[in-house]
Write a structure and sequence with these properties.
With 466 residues, this protein is an alpha/beta fold. Helix content is 56%, strand content 8%. Helix 8 packs antiparallel against helix 15 and helix 16 packs antiparallel against helix 17. The structure holds NADPH dihydro-nicotinamide-adenine-dinucleotide phosphate (NDP). The site of NADPH dihydro-nicotinamide-adenine-dinucleotide phosphate has 22 residues, from helix 1, helix 4, strand 6 and helix 6. It is an enzyme of class 1 (oxidoreductase).
Amino acid sequence: NKSEFGLIGLGVMGKSLCRNLAGKGFYISMYNRHVDGKEEDIALTFKKDFPELHTAKAFDKMQAFVHSLQTPRKIMLMVNAGKAVDQVIEEILPFMSTGDIVIDGGNSYYLDTQRRYEYLKEKGISFMGVGVSGGEEGALQGPSLMPGGDPDAYDKIKGYLETISARDPDGNACCSYLGKGGAGHFIKMAHNGVEYSEMQLIAEVYQLLRQGKNMQPDKIADLFEEWCQGELNSYLLEITAKILRRKEGNNWLIDLILDKAANKGTGNWTTVAASQLGIPATVLTSALYSRYISAFKSSREKASALYSPEKLSLELPIVHIKNAYRFARIINHHQGISLLKEASESYAWELDMSEICRIWTNGCIIRSAFIETLVPLLKKEKDILLNAHIAGMLKESYAAITQTVSEAVLGHYPIPCLTAALNYFNSYKEDRSNANMIQAQRDFFGAHGYRKNDDPEGDLHHTNWS
Ligand code: NDP
């Protein structure tokens, strides 16, 4: 008797997904490439370690793995994004048949997914790009899944994906078909972009509280836990409180961790995609650049010695910092949703923003009370900044973010994401921007022409400026 579902790549995520699938009663086959010098194969060792895998079949030979599956075959790849995905596709292809389905669950670049979708379609094989979020624990307990690709192929795999995924507050699967081609991986990329900003905003707030308000990490943890009791509740804020309580000997562990942020490229892809689609995702871009600046540790040390930046205490009340954070999070989510909307139009994906946020309510890294608020709101509202409830929140928090940004800048604190959020909002709510000057300059040196306020859709005018 053949297995119903196959998984290739037993790394951190692949292992957790296999245990999740087998634990739900599915008959699976698992494959990991053979590592030279190791007697026993990885899949077999893994199978022996977990009782829920007793019905799972383990392989280190590709042909035997593919042939162990019922047709149409359903094979999920959990290998590193990039050339490994293309390599594995080439390895399985000779053994596949028309109608089989390949599912890429890695963080693949959405344009690679579109390319693979077209390539495999020519060969009669369906390709699904499925964003997976939630990390190792999420993959095991129930991840948030963002599937894109062929809708008919989705119907054949949804039983597996929707069973293993997380549940939303109403008990529905945090997984549903989202769009064609590379839509699933684009949505996962946008999720990671929002995640970058959410993380950086917490890091900025943490620094203001630690240095500006002279609070010890455990006191900041108490405060973040208190914030988590209300509308600011989020997975990332919860884990930050736990991080801040951790000690190693007499030291706070956070103080022992090197201040150089790594990244795997998804924030870069989101920034590039936003820029190409003409979406000013300024908060996310600032979060990415903050990671890049952090990487220049030795230059920062030299600059610190040269400029000896002394940070000033902050006079502003903590509740202002809280409301500045609240304000910036709204702008961050607005920018992420704007990016998805533009991509949806550009690629004709017909994305449903409310449904995407519903999938993000549980299992994923950016799950939060605010995402839950967005699910019903996005059913009727296209632009969240024009919604009365959101406008109320922004108006309430505006003085707080203005004061926080001003005092933090005067006190020499780097707060790129808080500042970006405020500047974005200040630009967004201008009915008369300063872009008339840009148009005049373009016309002066390049004769590009400009339109006039009294005829905004009309012919271009040109002035002989000299
Ligand atoms: P790991 O590095 O833990 O595992 C990668 C797996 O891919 C290993 O089993 C590895 O095999 C296999 N592999 C790599 N190259 C090849 C190849 N050329 N041929 C065959 N097998 C190959 O990665 P993760 O499990 O963390 O991540 C997998 C994917 O999931 C990535 O795209 C990642 O971005 C994404 N992801 C990761 C999350 C996380 O929190 N870790 C969260 C969400 C998505 P071997 O053991 O032989 O090297």
